[in-house]
């Protein structure tokens, strides 16, 4: 009779965890501790179940006991202890069929620990009532197993479901520009960016796709022209504005911290080139804003202040090509504009 109960116990554990059938205890003492621990677990007495599982492991070092201990600690909210025993279980059951499930639970626990570190003031989750403990469904292939004690796998941690994939951010900062084809002394620009992104969670890190609208102001001192010699020394202002699509990869390096980089592309318009500007041939004003095909390369350091609020530093290199369609007034003088933006800002995820 005891052998049959042990077999049903092993099968119930297998059905609940997705693993291969667990090795049953080889001694009556280990079996007794296992039976008592499983009953206590199924009644929701997780703390009381742990000593029996530990004693069963001392008498019969089967890896499934380590899994049962980890499950008990996870139900109690002891995330670090649960992680410890999950690791020991996988070390001793290197070919466990439920490895993927256990690794997912470990990832959920690690994410929850990180979130706890980010917000120490967060109130603890309410205790789990005994009636909320998951129990295995009967399997017709093995008869009604409702009477067989089993340590079961609970639902995945809620930490994995609390992602906020959408984010809006604003960045401001200085920009430093240079032009190829003509030596022009350029002042420091002021750049502003508004960005929206959507993040996809990967096995390691996240991939975010986004769209940003930007503007960088370039003041200049006018030069005299044949028709307007009085423009010499007066002030003017041009602007690089437009939209860019981007793809960025970020990886968590510490609680709350992410580091990564990205690439992007789009169109930047150069407007405000009035008569007497120092960038065109003989200071001639173009007929309108000049569309510049542009590419970007960026780095990013991001710090989460709360679940939703974050700050970011994004050094970005923007390269813009002067198209031949701009006419000799520009393309014959300047072939491209390179800009380095050092922008910092704040964002909100939702």
What does this structure look like?
The chain is an alpha+beta fold and 350 residues long. It has 2 domains: 2-159, Serine Threonine Protein Phosphatase 5, Tetratricopeptide repeat (Alpha Horseshoe); 164-349, Beta Barrel (Porin). The protein has 7 helices and 8 strands, in the order H-H-H-H-H-H-E-E-E-E-E-E-E-H-E. It has an 8-stranded antiparallel beta barrel with strand order 1-2-3-4-5-6-7-8.
Judging by the overall fold, what is the CATH architecture of the largest domain? Beta Barrel
* Beta-strand segment tally: 8
Mean pLDDT: 81
What gross morphology would you assign? rod-shaped
Query: Which structural class should the secondary elements be placed in?
Result: alpha+beta
Topology summary:
Layout: H1 2-17, H2 28-42, H3 46-59, H4 63-76, H5 79-92, H6 99-118, E1 166-180, E2 189-201, E3 206-221, E4 235-254, E5 257-271, E6 290-304, E7 309-321, H7 328-331, E8 336-349
Antiparallel strand pairs: 1-2, 1-8, 2-3, 3-4, 4-5, 5-6, 6-7, 7-8
Which key features would you list for this structure?
Serine Threonine Protein Phosphatase 5, Tetratricopeptide repeat; alpha+beta; eight-stranded antiparallel beta barrel; 7 helices; 350 residues; 8 strands; Porin
Brief description of this entry?
With 350 residues, this protein is α+β, with helices and mostly antiparallel strands. It folds into two domains: 2-159, Tetratricopeptide repeat domain (Serine Threonine Protein Phosphatase 5, Tetratricopeptide repeat, Alpha Horseshoe); 164-349, Porin (Beta Barrel), CATH 2.40.160. It has seven helices and eight strands, in the order ααααααβββββββαβ.
């Amino acid at each position: 009779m005891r052998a049959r109960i042990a077999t049903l116990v092993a099968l119930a554990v297998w059905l609940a965890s997705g693993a291969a059938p667990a090795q049953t205890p080889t001694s009556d003492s280990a079996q007794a501790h296992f039976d008592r621990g499983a009953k206590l677990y199924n009644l929701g007495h997780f703390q009381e179940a742990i000593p029996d599982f530990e004693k069963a492991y001392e008498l019969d070092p089967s890896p499934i006991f380590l899994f049962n201990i980890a499950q008990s600690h996870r139900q109690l909210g002891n995330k670090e202890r649960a992680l410890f025993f999950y690791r020991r279980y996988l070390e001793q059951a290197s070919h466990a069929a439920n490895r993927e499930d256990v690794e997912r639970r470990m990832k959920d626990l690690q994410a929850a620990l990180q979130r706890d570190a980010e917000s120490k003031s967060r109130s603890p989750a309410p205790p789990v009532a005994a009636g909320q403990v998951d129990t295995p469904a009967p399997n017709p292939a093995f008869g009604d197993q409702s009477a067989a004690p089993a340590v079961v796998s609970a639902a995945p941690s809620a930490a994995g479901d609390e992602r906020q994939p959408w984010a809006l951010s604003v960045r401001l900062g200085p920009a430093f520009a240079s032009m190829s084809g003509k030596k022009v002394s350029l002042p420091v620009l002021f750049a502003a960016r508004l960005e929206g992104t959507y993040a996809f969670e990967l096995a390691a890190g996240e991939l975010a796709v986004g769209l940003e609208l930007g503007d960088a102001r370039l003041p200049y001192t006018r030069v005299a022209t044949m028709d307007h010699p009085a423009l010499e020394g007066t002030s003017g202002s041009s602007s690089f504005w437009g939209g860019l699509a981007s793809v960025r990869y970020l990886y968590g390096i510490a609680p709350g911290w992410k580091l990564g980089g990205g690439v992007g592309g789009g169109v930047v318009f150069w407007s405000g080139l009035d008569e007497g500007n120092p960038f065109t041939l003989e200071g001639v004003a173009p007929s309108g804003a000049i569309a510049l095909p542009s590419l970007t390369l960026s780095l990013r350091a991001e710090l989460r202040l709360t679940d939703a609020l974050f700050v970011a530093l994004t050094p970005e290199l923007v390269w813009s090509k002067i198209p031949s369609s701009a006419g000799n007034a520009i393309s014959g003088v300047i072939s491209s504009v390179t800009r380095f933006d050092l922008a910092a800002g704040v964002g909100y995820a939702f």
